[in-house]
Amino acid sequence: MYSNSNINIFSETVTYTLPKYFFLTKNFNPMDLNDFIEEKRKLGENVIKLRERMKSSEYKNRSISQQELSDKGGYFSKKTLGEIERGDGNPTLETILALAYVLEVHPKELFDF
Fold first, then answer.
1. Spatial separation of the C-alpha atoms in residues 13 and 2, rounded to whole Å
2. 99: which of 39, 48, 60, 82 lies 20 to 30 Å off by Cα?
3. By residue range, what is the domain housing residue 10?
4. Domain of life, per the record (predicted)?
């Protein structure tokens, strides 16, 4: 039911007991699993899809480029947008809101994947 464990703290051994549920719930902590790699990749793919729906003002018959989109609002850089689209970025809430604003969508749509 309980597990006894030993830990060394400042050269002294301390014995502590962990309840059984600790071991059951620890495996389900999403922060320990994969740093949300798959979710970041899906978010990036969705941002690309939403960006490609927008028409370029600089080039006829083309979708808006990363540079155009980043210049549109001035809220984030092309580098930041590229990181998000590749699934490498970890955007802040402010960046997510700004991205939704320049893509002309509700922030919820960014996560519809």
1. 19
2. 60
3. 2-31
4. Bacteria
Return the residue matching tokens 């604003």.
101
Helix, strand, coil tally for the chain in percent (to 5): 50, 15, 30
Q: Are residues 79 and 63 located together in one domain of the fold? A: yes
pTM to 2 decimal places: 0.69
pLDDT, tens digit only, all 113 positions of the chain: 445 555 545 556 655 565 555 555 545 555 555 678 899 999 999 999 999 999 999 989 999 999 999 999 899 999 999 999 999 999 999 999 999 999 999 999 999 98
> Structure tokens of 13?
């051994």
d(CA 81, CA 87): 10
Same domain, 45 and 18: no
Q: Assess contact for 47 and 100: CB atoms under 8 A.
A: no
Question: Domain check: are 69 and 16 in the same one?
Answer: no
